[in-house]
Write a structure and sequence with these properties.
- With 383 residues, the protein is an alpha+beta fold.
- The protein folds into 2 domains: 180 residues, no CATH class; 99 residues, no CATH class.
- The protein has 11 helices and 22 strands.
- A 4-stranded mixed β-sheet has the order 3-2-1-4. A 4-stranded mixed β-sheet has the order 9-8-7-10, with no helix packed on it.
- Strand 16 and strand 17 form a beta hairpin.
- The longest helix is centred in the first third of the chain and has 16 residues.
- It starts with a helix and ends in a 14-residue tail after the last helix.
- The relative contact order is 0.16.
């Protein structure tokens, strides 16, 4: 059933994108990440004339992506164009991430992001700090129970203090010392404390609010809620706790980065509270995105989430990092990616002179391979 869903979404998308923009039929430009034409032979250079690409260092993956290297266990979250290590499954799940959304890419693509650039190609530094638990997470360690709030671990002093705030014991996750110590110690939660920041409150009318700076922020739709929170972790508004009346000047809660939505006959990815159109299946697949993760957006959500048409993210096919080994899902031919050109690797000797095993090869749809220029045969490694 899942396969049929993905096939239907993919087929629907293909039928739509041809009429959208001139980007869809273009191949990529043979430049390296610094903007230099980089064909290795005169024949390769001829392939590079008048075609476009999208390759800004640090923009290999959209903000909000969850990525890992093939054959390596470490998982990262992309935030503000930097990758942040996710140190444990418990931390991953506290953010309501979906394991099925994990992008598995080459070590060359992931390593390239160790030097991060923003959307204007300005260098912003190396990897970000490890990701922490979501505010509102309930954790236990060595007999103590804590709530994460404003990035701090706040000890809850007693069962009475815990239950007064409407928390549920089955939402408490046991964590290691290392996981807990990602968060500095904060003020204790007592039987007189207000709702800590990060708690999601459900009112009698069914509306959901996030507590933020002791004020409330409205969560406008299930789509926005699901991108950030879990329904079973909300608390019912209690008369025993001082109510959070004042709305926050920050406005409503916005949808998380990296959410894939469909609406108005297009597929979009969210970033900074806006939706960015993705103009072709090949662009979508070059970013490593999964059709099964596309969520239908209501008319309300499509109107409520502003559109960002100025971003280049969804306009052009991404260039894979130099050194990436690629093959299509319908052929055994392996290619070496170099400056946007795919160079055939035609012998086992030439493959093993650069790679340790075939598990390093990234498989992509044939229609994506067809968008890249094919260069001359890869020569023997000089090393």
């Amino acid at each position: 059933m899942q396969f049929k869903k993905e096939l239907l979404l993919s087929s629907l998308f293909i039928g739509i994108f041809f009429t959208l923009t001139p980007y869809s039929n273009a191949k990529i430009e043979c430049k390296n990440i610094y903007g230099n034409l980089a064909g290795e032979t005169p024949a390769d250079d001829e392939l590079c004339q008048g075609i476009i690409y999208n390759e800004i260092p640090g923009r290999a993956f959209p903000n909000g992506s969850i990525i890992k290297k093939k054959n390596y266990p470490q998982v990262y979250y992309i935030e503000n164009f930097q990758k942040r290590a996710i140190e444990s499954p418990a931390l991953f799940e506290s953010r309501n991430f979906d394991w099925n959304a994990l992008i598995i890419s080459s070590e060359w693509d992931v390593d390239l992001m160790q030097l991060s650039y923003d959307s204007t190609n300005t260098f912003i530094g190396e990897d970000g700090a490890p990701l922490t638990f979501r505010d509102g997470s309930l954790l236990s360690n060595r007999g103590g129970v804590y709530i994460i709030s404003d990035g701090l671990r706040r000890p809850i002093v007693s069962p009475a203090a815990f239950l007064r705030l409407g928390f549920k014991w089955n939402n408490v996750k046991a964590v290691s010392d290392a996981e807990l110590n990602l968060h500095p110690l904060g003020e204790a939660v007592t039987t007189t404390s207000n709702y800590p920041d990060g708690v999601v409150i459900k009112t009698g009318g069914g509306k959901m609010y996030l507590v933020d700076d002791d004020k409330r922020r409205y969560i406008p739709s299930p789509l926005v809620f699901d991108s950030l929170f879990k329904w079973n972790e909300t608390v019912d508004l209690s008369l025993a706790v001082a109510p959070v009346y004042n709305p926050s000047e920050k406005g409503d809660v916005i949808i998380r980065d990296g959410v894939l939505i469909s609406g108005e006959g297009k597929v979009w990815v969210t970033e900074s509270g806006k939706k960015i159109p993705i103009y072709s299946p090949e662009i979508f697949e070059s970013l490593g995105l999964s059709w099964g993760q596309v969520k239908p957006a209501s008319t309300f959500d499509m109107n409520n989430i502003p559109t960002n048409n100025s971003s280049d993210l969804g306009k052009n096919i991404r260039v894979f990092a130099d050194g990436t080994a690629l093959k299509s899902d319908s052929s055994s031919q392996i290619y070496y990616s170099k400056a946007g050109i795919l160079r055939p690797i035609n012998t086992p000797e030439r493959f093993y002179s650069r790679y340790q095993n075939f598990n390093q090869v990234i498989t992509v749809p044939k229609r994506l391979i067809d968008k890249y220029p094919i260069g001359s045969e890869l020569p023997p490694s000089p090393y």
